[in-house]
């Protein structure tokens, strides 16, 4: 899709007319309809034909409370009707705010997502130019919306990709190509280098797979200074079988999505580079496959880590926290970032606690929690803070090593995982952990099986925008 700004709307051609709930003055301004049978309800649309036989789509923006998820209404319209659109269509944008225009573009772009990438016969999409008409120029917002929507689609493509294709090395290649295209620096640490630098926890998790682990370090410098403003760390388990503590087979195929955190980190760095924000960020992806093999790490093993802390393995299915431990240690030791945020599909516990509506948020920094929570509401990628009380910490105690990777109890699972990670942050004041297990992958109206949601791109990008120089 191509997006353009125009000053005036050509009412003799196809156009989309956004309408707010129970305020249908817009319709009356354009059409001689006294009492329209369309009330502007959220995510509804209706087709009328104009006097030139042109298409006029009335599209419902709903109420104020729907504004955070406005992309859904445009995504639905495009998904349902774009096969009928000609080479171009207009959007009447005079009454839309900048946020609404951006969300409209994100939604239109999200409707271009092709879930059937691996089908032998693919449906052909035709090129469409969408002109947003308004007296005020929205060119910059259109670009931003397009880049954001494209990034969301790209990371959905990664999360939905099959695990035999999306190996750790594949993620590394993806990052190298992205870095070349969007002009940032990418370093992929492979087996030999990981050994040399001491990424012992990453290596342990990856031991049982022929697809060897990698750590990806993506650096974007939008400022002249060298100081790292924000470091992002993502869990990139390309398939989580559970390892020797093997998972049941029901829904096991969905464990291809266990690199949802990594996908957000890869996507955000690419997007920030394309938006050329004045900020320095580093994205770290710790990627491995948690497989079953004679070489696999075992329950009972004591492993080392990048930090030098030893870990007793109680359950090989608690592997995400291990790879993240090394990513966090690497960040605090080498980058000393102002903010440190990790994202991971880390626990089933957070899914049982918050379902599919919010990520679990863990931090000791209340100001950061408030900022993230507010942004979450605004972009409809919500977060909900969960506790890290001191008393829970005894669950990490090991008799034989510095700490263990699982308490063995069916209690406070998401908190235990967060506190395990905290042990590798050296009490970084601006650290936050987001457990996105429930929100990164799930049901949608556009697929019969569960699929990637794209959660996190807007949340983290808006957070970074707030910290960037204006
Ligand atoms: N990848 C899973 C968490 C997960 C669950 C992600 C459901 C997405 C949907 C993680 O590695 C895991 O297996 N966690 C275990 C930890 C337990 C063994 C301590 C869990 O939460 O059950
Ligand atoms: Zn696991
Ligand atoms: Zn996992």
Distance between the termini: 29 Å
Output the strand order for the largest sheet: 7-8-10-9-13-17-14-15
CATH superfamily of the largest domain: Zn peptidases
Rg result: 23 Å
The overall pLDDT average reads 97
Q: What is the overall shape?
A: elongated
**What is the count of distinct domains?**
2
CATH class category label of the largest domain: Alpha Beta
Number of strands: 19
CATH architecture assignment of the largest domain: 3-Layer(aba) Sandwich
CATH fold group of the largest domain: Aminopeptidase
Helicity range: 25-40%
Give the topology, please.
Layout: E1 2-6, E2 15-20, H1 25-30, E3 45-49, E4 55-62, H2 71-81, E5 88-92, H3 98-110, E6 129-133, H4 139-160, H5 168-182, E7 185-189, H6 191-197, H7 200-206, E8 214-221, E9 230-240, H8 260-275, E10 280-290, E11 302-303, E12 311-312, H9 320-335, E13 339-344, H10 348-354, E14 359-363, H11 366-379, E15 383-385, E16 403-404, H12 413-422, E17 431-435, E18 441-444, E19 447-452, H13 457-467
Parallel strand pairs: 1-6, 2-4, 2-5, 5-6, 9-10, 9-13, 12-16, 13-17, 14-15
Antiparallel strand pairs: 3-4, 7-8, 8-10, 11-12, 14-17, 18-19
Helix pairs in contact: 2-3, 3-4, 4-8, 5-8, 7-9, 8-13, 9-12, 11-13
This protein binds ligand BES and zinc ion (2 copies).
Ligand BES is lined by residues 240, 258, 315, 317-320, 345-349, 351, 406, 413, 437.
């Amino acid at each position: 899709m191509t997006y353009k700004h125009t000053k005036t709307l050509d009412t003799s051609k196809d156009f989309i007319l956004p309408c707010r709930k129970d305020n249908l003055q817009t319709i009356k301004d354009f059409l001689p309809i006294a009492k329209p049978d369309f009330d502007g309800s959220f995510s509804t649309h209706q087709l009328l034909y104009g006097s030139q036989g042109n298409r006029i789509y009335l599209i419902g923006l709903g109420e104020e409370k729907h504004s955070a998820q406005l992309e859904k209404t445009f995504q639905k319209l495009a998904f349902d009707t774009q096969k009928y659109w000609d080479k171009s269509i207009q959007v009447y944008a005079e009454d839309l705010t900048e946020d609404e225009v951006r969300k409209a573009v994100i939604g239109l772009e999200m409707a271009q997502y092709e879930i059937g990438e691996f089908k032998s016969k693919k449906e052909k999409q035709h090129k469409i130019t969408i002109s947003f008409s308004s007296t005020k120029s929205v060119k910059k917002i259109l670009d931003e919306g397009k880049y954001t929507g494209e990034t969301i689609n790209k990371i959905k493509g990664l999360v939905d990709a099959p695990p035999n294709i999306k190996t750790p090395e594949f993620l590394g290649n993806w990052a190298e190509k992205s870095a070349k295209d969007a002009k940032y620096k990418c370093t992929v640490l492979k087996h030999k280098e990981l050994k040399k630098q001491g990424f012992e926890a990453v290596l342990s998790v990856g031991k049982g797979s022929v697809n060897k682990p990698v750590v990806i370090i993506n650096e974007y410098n939008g400022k002249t200074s060298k100081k790292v403003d924000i470091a992002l760390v993502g869990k990139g388990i390309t398939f989580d079988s559970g390892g020797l503590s093997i998972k049941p087979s029901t829904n096991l195929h969905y464990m291809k999505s266990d690199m949802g955190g990594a996908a957000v980190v890869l996507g955000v760095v690419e997007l920030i580079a394309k938006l050329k924000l004045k900020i320095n960020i580093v994205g770290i992806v710790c990627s491995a496959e948690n497989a079953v093999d004679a070489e696999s790490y075992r329950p009972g093993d004591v492993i080392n880590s990048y930090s030098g802390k030893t870990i007793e393995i109680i359950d090989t299915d608690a592997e995400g926290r291990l790879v993240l431990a090394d990513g966090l240690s690497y960040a605090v030791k080498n980058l000393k970032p102002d903010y440190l945020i990790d994202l991971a599909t880390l626990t089933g516990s957070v899914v049982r606690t918050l379902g599919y509506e919010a990520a679990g948020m863990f931090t000791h920094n209340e100001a950061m929690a408030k900022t993230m929570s507010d942004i979450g509401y605004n972009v409809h990628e919500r977060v909900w803070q969960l506790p890290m009380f001191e008393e829970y910490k005894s669950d990490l105690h090991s008799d034989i090593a510095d700490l263990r990777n699982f308490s063995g109890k069916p209690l406070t699972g998401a908190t235990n995982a967060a506190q395990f990670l905290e042990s590798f942050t050296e009490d970084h004041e601006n650290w936050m952990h987001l457990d996105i297990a429930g929100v990164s992958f799930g049901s949608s109206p556009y697929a019969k099986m569960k699929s990637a949601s794209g959660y996190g791109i807007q949340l983290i990008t808006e957070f970074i925008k707030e910290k960037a120089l204006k």
